[in-house]
Amino acid sequence: MAWRARPGRGGLEGLELGLLLWRVQLQMFINQTVRSRQAGRIAASITGAAVILLAWSWEGFITWLGVQASHRVPVRVDTVHVLSVAFLVYTGVLVFSSLVFSLNALLLNPDLDMLLAAPRPVESVLASRMVVQILRLFLLSLLFTGPALMMLAVVNQNPLIPFAFAMLFLLYPVFVVVIISLISLLLVRIIPVGRGREVLTLFGIALAIGINLANFLLNPALRDPGFGRHPSVAPSLPDIPAASSSWIPSGWAGRSAAAVLSGDWVTAGQWLLLLLAASAAIFAVGSLLSGRLYMAGWIHAVPPRRRHATPRVRRLRGAVPLLSPVLTAVVIKDWRMRTRDLAQLVRFVMPVVFLFIIFGLRFPRLLDAVRSLGDGPPAAMIGLIPAWILLFSLSISLGLSAVSLEGKSIWVYAASPNSTLRLLQAKCWSSALPVASLVAVAALAAEIIIRPGWLWAVTAVVLAIAEAAAVTTLMVGIGAVFARFDWTDARRMMHPAGIFIGMGLFSIVSGVSALLLGISIALAAVTRFPLFTTWLAAMTISVGGAVAIAALGILFGNQRLRGLEVG
Amino acid sequence: MLSTRLLTKRYGSLTAVEDLDLEVGAGELFGFLGPNGAGKTTTIKMLVGLLRPTSGNARVAGVDITAEPEQAKALIGYVPDAATLYDKLSAREFLEFSGDLYHVERRLRDRRIAALLKLFDLQDRGDDFLSGYSRGMRQKVSLASALLHDPQVLFLDEPTVGLDPQSARQMKDILQDFCREGKTVFFSTHILEIAERMCTRLAIINHGRLVAMGSLQDLRHMVGQDGQSLEQIFLELTGSREEDVSGVLRGLES
Lengths: 567, 254
Prior knowledge:
The complex is a heterodimer of chains A (about 575) and B (about 250).
Chain A: H1 9-32, H2 39-72, H3 79-108, H4 112-117, H5 122-155, H6 161-187, H7 196-218, H8 249-262, H9 265-295, H10 311-314, H11 325-340, H12 342-358, H13 363-371, H14 377-382, H15 385-399, H16 410-414, H17 420-450, H18 454-481, H19 496-527, H20 531-562
Chain B: E1 2-11, E2 14-24, E3 29-33, H1 40-47, E4 55-60, E5 63-64, H2 69-73, E6 76-79, H3 91-101, H4 106-119, H5 135-147, E7 153-157, H6 165-180, E8 184-188, H7 192-198, E9 201-206, E10 209-214, H8 216-223, H9 230-238, H10 242-253
Parallel strand pairs in B: 3-8, 3-9, 6-7, 7-8
Antiparallel strand pairs in B: 1-2, 1-4, 4-5, 9-10
């Protein structure tokens, strides 16, 4: 190997290569949006830009309101400490996003081999990844805080505020990105080849559960004694005293930012310079170390283990005895794909975990409140809320992705002697069966615990199952209309427009159902019809309407699939 | 067994295949050749019903692939270029799935799967997930899947890419045996040596148009020089020029 590490060289070349990579990414972004020549993409780009402008205007307005309020009601705040805490919290975001980015870059991005084959020092290639990540975080920071900073500049009549904060946003992520990149180089050593996406999914789950648990435990909005708050947690957001220590970067950034806001440019410059020097040093050392780690072979992931199909899973065939062989084949194949791919499996597991966090942790108080309603349809209906949340999540995640689940392998079905309608039938079975089963279990469990009277409980569970099947079928139809066969990544299988329409239709179906059932109770009270009669009539209309909409969805989905060319 | 009449495929202003007329008989091993981007894959995808022709028609064993796609597809086996398979299924599970899609009776299907896995030396890896398979192994699974329902016509798009020499030889033997049973193989390839040795007849397509069709001897007569290799005929008919390549390479050196 002719290359020998020279301190600083890798860092500087990394900077240059990073800017080059950034330019290419920008070109790709432009090509995929405004230069795509596809009306849909251009419209989506314009809509996205309009949404950002709207959000910016709102943020600017809220900032102005906040400044006006602070003038009228002066509040004594330790600005240095508050800003330091904000930077420390931001560090948590940086850690997670850098970890995901670095592992993605090392395990999933196809261009790493091409870059490493180029006549550039390895350290510069690895450093360039850090530069790209830092630039990305920098732009995201500006995207989220830009309008507020501009408003602060206007209100304080100090046009340099946005620039000073921009410098902080550029420098602050450096130490996190470098450290996490080095850790990632070590981590890939224990991740088997081909399991990168699943590992990243695990990180995603950990973050989602962490955020929700933190929200449950720390959110002041949940301090109401009506909710089951953990008694050991103090009734306010925790302070982090060490955040503003002058020995850590959050303290430096906090001091510099506070000085910028108060117009003390000398102090601001001093802390900024310290941050700059530390960032430059850690970037130089980090890029050198990353090269060393690569040369020591740490970048190589663990060879893949041979994964087998277990005999237990093979016995699945007997589990769906009533369907035709083609439908059974697709249902079983989908079940295997969903349960063997962690990213897909998460779609089953996450809603259940969130239900536990939302309802399970507050269970005793919620149960008392519902039981106080006594026997009858209102208690039975309220018992369906967990099942409905589960239905919302599962029908969208499983139903919308059902057709796209075929991915590039869609040719296997398309080349076979079977119609597109049969594929949709199979997808309805493969999605509605698990969704309706899980919803039924949730509804049944809730009704058993609430005990609204067995007749009302049974009708509520039947309603939940029927609506689950109908709504999931509807989502399969929408998923077919917006099918994406280019992605194997579970997160990207669903088209944003499909999600939007699916959520909208779910809300309409749910809202109309609830309204009908409410009307049935009121009608029984007014007309003195037996409540059970009006209730059953409302249920029938509600399920019938959902089935009709689902049939329409399948019709549109089939039209789309019939017009599809695989090639 | 296979015929096309004025088969055409256009994508906007781009004509991928134009007025293609082919006739392939039973028992033929038919090679479909052409440079990159000539329209080979588009033609095959139209013949197996994955793409709809802009105009013209194609028939497989007398069945119109556009008018009666399901009946026609039941007679067809298809091996795509770089087949994407379901990574989270084992080879055996994938073949079971494929057999069910083609309505193969369950016991017959299981017997054939066992035989095909043995034929392709995959019986020891049959229960491994396809995600762990090499490209050549995937190609074998794909061919096994195409043979599973005993089709009348087999379409293969670059079937030998990714195969080691033994496997390529094995595939050649399988295809020849298939044709001896009176069935038809239609395959595209870049490897002219294989086409020269295996095919009973050949067609050459360039810029979406058929430029030649017939036996190797017919093609030699067409270019007017007996004894020429298929490579020379191919280069002549598709207009590729070696001197251009040398000129460009010399230009790069300076």
